[in-house]
UniProtKB/TrEMBL annotation:
PROSITE patterns to which the protein is assigned, alphabetical: HTH_LYTTR, RESPONSE_REGULATORY
Modified residues (4-aspartylphosphate): 54
Record-linked SUPFAM superfamilies: CheY-like
Domain Response regulatory: 3-117
Species assigned in the record: Arthrobacter wenxiniae
PANTHER family named among the record's database cross-references: STAGE 0 SPORULATION PROTEIN A HOMOLOG, TRANSCRIPTIONAL REGULATOR-RELATED
Ranges in a coiled coil: none
Keywords: Phosphoprotein
Protein name: Response regulator transcription factor
């Protein structure tokens, strides 16, 4: 069961969302808060898996509240619920699971609860950077980390390659290597990181080793080859002792 917190300065909005959440069999205890300050008190006292936060609350608003609880040792997942559709990018920059527009429909809320349930079932370290904001052609998009197949260095930038497109981000490859190591990304070359679940082959027959990632051959440097082979060796099928 998923224990949740609903925070909104408008009591009818709190009760309406609590009612809709209560109809979902995956939801357990529902805590109610009439504002950000009370929400912090509840989070300090209770075990909460996900917090549904209104953005516009007097005093400590939803965005500020998300920043505060994001610094806690075991922060709850955050879902923003608001009447404004112009704060989505700020919300996802705070690693929000979802962004719901009022009035919230039962079907839309069910999808959000499903996403929350999946993430609650994951180890906490695998939740980091689940959603990434990227810019493409003047449009900001949200992609999932598990969509990224490999990353290519381009100076002080990095290009994220997915099945559908590639996206340039203003982050050095070395920073992404440290940040995403726990999510299965391995350095294979000074210019490349690969997501190991997408690696289908390691080719050693030529003078320059390569790996196949989604029908794309990427170079493997001699420096990084031992670590890559160690990762692949860990997945090798062996007979039972």
């Amino acid at each position: 069961m998923i224990n949740v917190l609903v925070a909104d300065d408008e009591l009818p909005a709190v009760e309406e969302l609590a009612y809709l959440l209560g109809r979902d069999p995956r939801i357990g205890t529902i805590h109610r808060a009439p504002g950000g300050a009370r929400a912090l008190e509840i989070l300090a006292e209770e075990d909460v898996d996900a917090a549904f936060l209104d953005i516009h609350m007097p005093g400590l608003n939803g965005l500020e509240l998300a920043r505060v609880i994001g610094r806690s040792p075991r922060p709850p997942l955050v879902v923003f619920v608001t009447a404004d559709d112009d704060r989505a990018l700020e919300a996802f920059d705070l690693a929000a699971v979802d962004y719901l527009l009022k009035p919230v429909s039962t079907a839309r809320l069910a999808k959000t609860v499903g996403r929350v349930a999946e993430m609650v079932a994951q180890p906490s370290e695998s939740r980091e950077s689940e959603l990434i904001t990227v810019d493409q052609g003047g449009v900001s998009r949200i992609i999932r980390l598990d969509e990224v197949r490999f990353v290519q260095a381009q100076g002080d930038y990095a290009r994220l390659h997915t099945a559908e497109a590639s996206y340039l981000v203003r982050v050095p490859l070395s920073d992404l290597e440290q940040r995403w190591q726990a999510s299965g990304f391995v350095r294979i070359h000074r210019s490349y990181l690969v997501c190991m679940p997408f690696v289908t082959a390691l080719k050693l027959g030529s003078a320059k080793p390569t790996v196949s990632v989604a029908n794309t051959d990427l170079p493997v440097s001699r420096r990084h080859l031992p670590a890559l082979r160690e990762h692949l060796q860990a997945t090798r099928v062996r007979p039972l002792p």
